[in-house]
Design goal:
The complex is a heterodimer. Chain A has a single domain, classed as Glutaredoxin (3-Layer(aba) Sandwich), CATH 3.40.30. Chain A is 42% helix and 27% strand. Chain A has 3 helices and 4 strands, in the order βαβαββα. By secondary structure, chain B is an all-alpha fold. Chain B is built from 17 helices and no strands. The interface between A and B is medium-sized, with 31 and 36 residues.
């Protein structure tokens, strides 16, 4: 089971990223849980200052941008 | 669903970018004559008629602003992809209040900012040891001196007013940062923010190619323009009506020099118009044309971008009320002061 976390306050950009992440899970055909981290303390504690951030299996892979579902799927299958 | 349809261009990147630039330039050159020709030859409206003037104003300004937004926001987004806050922070951490406030205000122009990022950004700056005043200089400058406002001003008012707006915005940010820094309000930052200090920071090592960056910039711009479009159409539409129909005396009576309270009134009016720079600037352009003084105009536009209730609500999570009140007070008085200064010294 993989984990994907979207780090952000729930703004429209964060929701777009979450939608892309869910789509990426389907594209990559993996078992993964997508969750949303909204606590600012935890977001900053993990080194993210520009939201939305994206973490795969606990590792931050992108901040301040909205990677496409295709990109996220590639990261999912690479790592 | 949109993500599936975004494909990497199969043509070489320089060809795609070159074609886009060429198409933009052609559109930019033919846009104004085309609008004139359509209004007066195809629709057969008369020059100097109310309807003709209003229609020409609308048909000329809407494509012009759209072209400017599409072109310049893409370029600015591309450039500021190289200046994420994670990279800006170490540049500001080692500086004193004065050089730091200047640097923070300047960097606020190129750094992306949305109010939903305000909290992580604030905590991130403070925990890295960026002085409070410098952090505020950044928080003021980043939303106020933003590319949408500058592009709209440049396109509709010309470079002089766009640069005046930028200088005024930077001044408010720098002075605001210095004042807040000197007041020593550290104890009014929520306590947990200080407890986070000294945590190790993670560096994110995703390499972005030029193609990634261009795709990012373009999809950001498209989403932004799509979001702004209804406000633009409404704003330019109302601007066109004012341009064609509103009597100059009326505008001058309300917003003119003879009304000493005009500046604070327009600042208050701007509060509920948060982030609608795209929709308000065309209205303001028409008002300026009808005799509203420049300082009042600038104050109104600065208040539209900088005084944002949703942002203040979000920032309440990291600052106690006195600090938030000082922040709002400093920004509003700065804007009102700029308005009066321009009204007195620039005519």
């Amino acid at each position: 089971m993989r984990t994907i976390e979207v780090l952000g306050s729930g703004c429209p950009n964060c929701r777009r990223l979450e939608a892309n992440a869910r789509e990426a899970v389907m594209m990559a055909g993996v078992e993964a849980e997508v969750s949303h981290v909204t606590d600012p303390r935890e977001i900053v504690g993990r080194g993210v200052m520009s939201t939305p951030g994206l973490a795969i299996d606990g590792t931050i892979v992108s901040t301040g941008r909205i990677p496409s579902a295709g990109d996220i799927a590639t990261w999912l299958s690479e790592s | 669903m949109t993500a599936l349809t975004i494909r990497r261009p199969t043509l070489p990147l320089p060809v795609v970018a070159g074609t886009a630039v060429f198409a933009w330039l052609v559109a930019w050159i033919v846009e104004a004559p085309a609008a004139d020709w359509f209004t007066f030859s195809v629709l057969g409206l008369q020059h100097d008629s109310h309807l003709g003037e209003a229609t020409a104003f609308f048909l000329e300004d809407l494509p012009k602003v759209l072209l400017l937004l599409l072109g310049i926001v893409t370029v600015v987004t591309l450039i500021r992809g190289f200046f994420p806050p994670e990279r800006i922070r170490p540049m500001l951490a080692g500086r004193g209040l004065v050089p730091g406030s200047f640097a923070a205000a300047g960097l606020g122009i190129v750094t992306p900012f949305c109010s939903c990022s305000a909290v992580p950004l604030f905590i991130g700056f403070v925990e890295a040891g960026v002085p409070l005043g410098v952090t505020f200089a950044f928080l003021i400058s980043s939303p106020m001196v933003n590319e949408v406002a500058l592009v709209m001003l440049w396109g509709l008012f010309g470079p002089a007013i766009a640069l005046a707006y930028m200088a005024a915005g930077l001044t408010v940010a720098i002075v605001g940062g210095l004042v807040i820094g000197k007041l020593g309000l550290e104890r009014y930052v929520e306590d947990y923010v200080w407890e986070l200090q000294g945590r190790p920071t993670i560096s994110i090592s995703v390499r972005l190619t030029w193609s990634d960056r261009l795709t990012d910039a373009w999809s950001y711009t498209r989403a932004l323009v799509r979001k702004l479009l209804p406000y633009l159409i409404a704003g330019i539409g109302i601007g066109a009506l004012i341009h064609g129909y509103a009597p100059t005396d009326l505008v001058a009576a309300i917003g003119g020099r003879s009304n000493p309270l005009a500046v604070p009134i327009v600042v208050l009016l701007a509060v509920p118009m948060y982030s609608n720079a795209a929709g308000t600037i065309p209205i303001v352009q028409a008002l300026l044309g009808k005799g509203m003084p420049l300082g009042t105009t600038l104050a109104f536009m600065m208040a539209v971008t900088a005084i944002s209730l949703p942002e203040f609500v979000i920032l309440r999570r990291v600052m106690k009320l006195p600090l938030l009140a000082v922040f709002i007070g400093v920004v509003s008085s700065g804007i009102v002061a700029i308005g009066y200064l321009f009204n007195v010294f620039v005519s």
